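Input/output pair, single chain:
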Amino acid sequence: MRHVPAGATAALAAVGGYAALYRLGQTWGATDRELQRALAGDELLPNARARTTHAITVAAPAQDVWPWLVQMGWGRAGWYTYRWVDRLLFPANGPSADRILPEFQQLELGDHVPDGPPATDCWFTVEQLEPGRLLVLRSTRHLPLSWRHRGLAMDWIWSWHLSEPIAGSTRVVQRNRMRLQPWWFERAFLAAIVPADFIMARSHLRGLRRRAEAAAGQATADRPLTGQRLSDLQLAMSGLEIVQRLERSGMRVLVTAATK
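Output:
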């Protein structure tokens, strides 16, 4: 058997690891159907050279997820990414909010959503918005100013799509579409950003899920027992009472049998 040099083994492992990260950066959390489906906002950049689609299921209704989306942005609620991700990749980002911020709940078409300090001239524009269902952002200002002055360009569509396949449970699909110029910059940029998007998108969606589920759970706990919740509780208590009666009856039978 031919001996394989350690360097070649390490190189193969590195290539395989990079390929796996690249694929995860394109598809983490999404089903094949979600990956292939045309989504609102795709038409804004039909000639995109890069596309990533990620998804997560949130155990909360869409109406409870939506407030967390509309308040996102720098100087607003943040992006819900892991704090270590912010410190490593986006040091200008502060901690993300863990509560709904009423002052950032009004979002309209054409609004700017900042993604950096004012000096960076970096922000998104709200292109499409359907409360509780759809948010589409677009940016041509996400490269550093010095890069833009040298002729480098990026057009970026970032969208969130909410649906409730099961009542009270929200499927969140997030899609990125990008086109960069010139071609050599696009290839270099995507080679770095797509694998990194596995970390960034996953931390963002998990952060969104954690906050929305925690808030929805608290709201449910605080809600008075009326309607369906009261009926469910009464049914559960009735079931418990029946079980307890059966257990007591069973104990009596065992005691009677033991004394005979």
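The chain has one domain: 11-222. Confidence is low (pLDDT under 50) at residues 225-260.
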